[in-house]
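Late entry, written up from scratch paper. The run itself happened at the end of the previous shift, but nothing got recorded in the book at the time, so transcribing now.
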Amino acid sequence: MSKYSFLDDYSEGCHPKILQAMTASNMAQQTAYGHDEYSKRGKELIQQHLDNKETPIFFVAGGTLANIIIMSSALRSHEAIISAATGHIAMRETGAIEATGHKIISVPSADGKLTAASVKTAVASNAHYPHMAKPRLVYISNATEAGTVYTKAEVQALSEVCKTNHLLLMMDGARLGTALTADINDMTLQDIAELTDIFWIGGTKAGALIGEAIVIPNAVLAEDFEFHIKQRGALLAKGRLLGQQFAELFDQDLFFELCKHCNRMAQKLANAMTTNGYGLAAATESNQIFPVLPNSMIETLEQDFAFYRWEKADDEHSVIRLVTSWATEESQIDAFIAAVENIANRSNTD
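Output as recorded:
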């Protein structure tokens, strides 16, 4: 029997509604390169959540592509990005941004977030012009790599410091759905559109087969953006593949319902870990859980479940990462909790 995976939130294919819609429309002829009726509908449904119904939206296949296209189009060769040291572009994109010729200025962060104060410090520390790369774009992700969620006040403060220092504010939204449906969230898509220059909505981790939607409130950044998509090899001839998935995700708010499920499953896991006396390396605010468990327990759990050993805690304990998805079965959450309790009970009686 194969192991049940808590490795990520994209181990499954896509939500059945998406697959059914794509199958039903399979033989319908459509205009290529994203000018199809499904992409138009997908954009319209997203725009209904924004203050400006004319906000440009572009679909691309993946998150790394979205980040590369955004930064390479928005920045001149001497301009740099400010990111939390744990940010996805700094840690887990194989130097994709640096490969475009742009320096990443890494800022230490205990919870994966940037603050207005940390951005000010980064700007001041990189101001020996023209001998240092010039900070121009602030990169944040919501939810962060640590699973934490930005509040509206935190993003407002970042937006203000960016405007004061002539910086662009970008939000990586690979897990934006779980951030927006988190219990502590107080932001909407409209708020994000008002506070950032550019952001993207992750479909891949929210029930789509593939696809991310880049939203560009800043009109200057939107100009000729499609050319940059084409130059980076990201303009799909069958753009309908991406557009139709977002049309289905945002029809009757399926996107938000699926992400709420992610968070509910994650919170159930987190509560069970703390109830059984195990700490968490980070607060569980979205769909990533970071329990600190004995290495012996981890080895036993790995026989039936797949997950990442995230980092060493001490000689006898490690932090693991568990990720719930739109398709996570609650019975598997219960099975994982039962396995933890059984191992703990055996250890206590030995």
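The chain has 15 helices and 13 strands.
(Scratch paper discarded after transcription.)
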